[in-house]
Amino acid sequence: MQTVTVSASSAYPVYIGGGLLERAGELIAASTQSRTCAVVTDSKVGPLYAAQVCRSLQDVGFTVRLHAFPAGERNKNLGTYGAILEFLAENKLTRSDFLVALGGGVVGDMAGFAAATYQRGIGYIQMPTTFLAASDSSVGGKTAIDLAAGKNLAGAFHQPDMVICDTDTFRTLPDAVFSDGVAETVKHGLIADAAFYQFLMDGDIRAQIDDVVRRNVEIKASVVGEDEFERGRRKLLNFGHTLGHAIEKCSGYAVTHGHAVAAGMALASRAAERLGYSPAGTLEAVLAANKRFGLPSGCPYAAGELYAAATSDKKRSGSGIDVVVLEQVGQAKTVRLDMEGLRAFTEAAL
Residue 18: CA atoms inside 13 Å, Cβ hemisphere, count? Predict the structure, then answer.
């Protein structure tokens, strides 16, 4: 087992390794006085791992309540969020109890937001079961649900008490789902660590999955520790996300997050080179990674469609938006655009 500490408003450990779901009860019991919790999962992950996690918790004395909701980004909405809150209330969870988010990014976002708002905030623990969630969304305290107008428009910063990442759970992932995590992993290398980017390009991610997840978490933890509430450096983690979220929305969320981000990084890099924000060669690095890992670099939507979707992005503030571009492999910056600038950026991306 490897451990990374995230130093945000409260410090917490991220445990990484195989076989950790079996040890979940032991790890959690050592850090809390509470003995009641709710495990929140979805209809895909629940049948695979919920019984194992609940048994691990019960074996060390926890009273466990289990709630599962229909899987998929389309269910990351107000209705599902409300149902989680009602479940917690019906089962009389108190402020001293906690919630376990068992699943991928949708589960982590939904359960985290429920924990942030139930009785004005209770503790929660992330147990990511996808490479994408383990490498990105389970760390850093961003929780959210989608609204009809766009992705993650209602949410809260609420740091978990602990992250338990059992990398054995990745073995059940289809290749397309695993590659969602590859996209965010490549992003971390592109914005923060050129040596890590090259390691990914030369190596075998699956064969060294614990080390790859650890480096992802280290990069994310470094950024979050410096800028927990995304007022500065943390914005760099949004590389590929402005146009990536637009692609997701235009597709009705048929395009998964990682694939959309991969395409978004390529589109943003093309626009940045054409408009002079990035030097020549940065687009080539993104395209090479996407090709190496079978990720998309284009999209079927017109500039006008992407622009309209991007104007609802949560990163917009006032009359402008910050987009992330590469200064070189391993280093990124933000560029402030007004809405006409965003339109021009979107057009240049295609």
Answer: 7
Interhelix angle 303-310/241-250, nearest 10 degrees: 110
Check: CB of residue 227 under 8 Å from CB of residue 200.
no
Beta bridge partner(s), residue 12: 6
* Burial classification of residue 33, based on how many CB atoms lie within 10 Å of its CB (0-12 exposed, 13-18 middle, 19 or more buried): exposed
Q: How many CA atoms lie within 13 A of 9 on its CB side?
A: 8
Q: What is the 3-state secondary structure (H, E, C) of 246-303?
A: HHHHHCCCCCCHHHHHHHHHHHHHHHHHHHCCCCCCHHHHHHHHHHHCCCCCCCCCCH
Query: From edge to edge, which strands make up the β-sheet containing 316-317?
Result: 316-317, 320-328, 331-338
Spatial distance between the Cα atoms of 342 and 12, rounded to a whole number of angstroms: 37
Q: Which residues face 289 on adjacent strands?
A: none
- Model confidence pLDDT, tens digit, residues 293-330: 999 999 999 999 999 999 987 666 667 999 999 999 99
* Interatomic CA distance for residues 149 and 307, integer angstroms: 13
Percent of the chain as helix, strand, coil, to the nearest 5? 50, 20, 25
User: Span 150-158, mean pLDDT?
Assistant: 94
| Residue keyed to tokens 């917690």 | 88
Element housing 308 (H / E): helix 303-310
How far is the C-alpha of 202 from the C-alpha of 21, rounded, in Å? 31
Separation CA 101–CA 87 (nearest Å): 14
Question: How many Cβ atoms sit within 10 Å of the Cβ of residue 161?
Answer: 18
pLDDT at 150: 87
Cα angle vertex 42, ends 167, 154, to 5°? 100
